[in-house]
Write a structure and sequence with these properties.
mainly alpha; about 0% strand; about 150 residues
Length: about 150
C-alpha cells in the first residue's frame, strides 16, 4: 500500500513540474508574441490600416510564432512535438475565436477613446486573451487525448 501511495505522489509531483514548465514556457513565448503582435499592430495602424484588420494581421504574425514554438516545446508530448494537422485545425479555430474577441474589444476602445488608446489597450487585451489561450492550447489544441 505504501508503495502505491509513493508512486501516486511521484506522479503528482511530475505533473506539477510539467505544468510549471508549461506555464513558464507559455509566458516566455507569449511575451515574444505580444511584442511582435503589438509592433505590427502599431505599424499598421500608423499606416492607416483599420483597427480590426490591423489586429487580425498582427495576431497572425504572433500566432505563427506561437504555434510553432508552443507546439514544439511548451506542449510537446514525451514522444515528440504536437504539430500535426489536427492540432493545426484546432489552433486555427481557437485563434479565430480569440482574434475576433480581441478585435471587437479593440474596436470598442477605438470608438470610445480613439486610435492612440487602442495602442495602449492592445497589450492589456492580449494579456486577457493569453489566459484563455493557455487553457485552449493545453486542453484543446495540443491535448494528448487528440494524438
Amino acid at each position: 500500500m505504501r508503495r502505491h501511495w509513493q508512486r501516486l505522489c511521484e506522479g503528482v509531483g511530475r505533473h506539477r513540474g510539467r505544468l510549471r514548465f508549461e506555464i513558464v514556457a507559455f509566458l516566455l513565448v507569449g511575451g515574444l508574441q505580444v511584442v511582435l503582435d503589438t509592433l505590427v499592430f502599431i505599424a499598421l495602424g500608423a499606416l492607416g490600416v483599420p483597427v480590426f484588420a490591423a489586429n487580425v494581421a498582427s495576431r497572425l504574425a504572433g500566432a505563427c510564432l506561437g504555434f510553432l514554438v508552443n507546439g514544439r516545446v511548451t506542449f510537446a508530448s514525451a514522444d515528440g512535438h504536437g504539430l500535426d494537422p489536427g492540432a493545426l485545425l484546432r489552433f486555427v479555430i481557437t485563434w479565430a475565436v480569440l482574434t475576433t474577441l480581441g478585435g471587437l474589444l479593440l474596436v470598442q476602445v477605438d470608438q470610445v477613446f480613439g486610435l492612440t488608446a487602442t495602442w495602449l489597450a492592445k497589450p492589456m487585451v492580449e494579456a486577457f486573451l493569453a489566459v484563455l489561450g493557455f487553457m485552449s492550447l493545453k486542453y484543446f489544441v495540443f491535448a494528448r487525448r487528440f494524438r
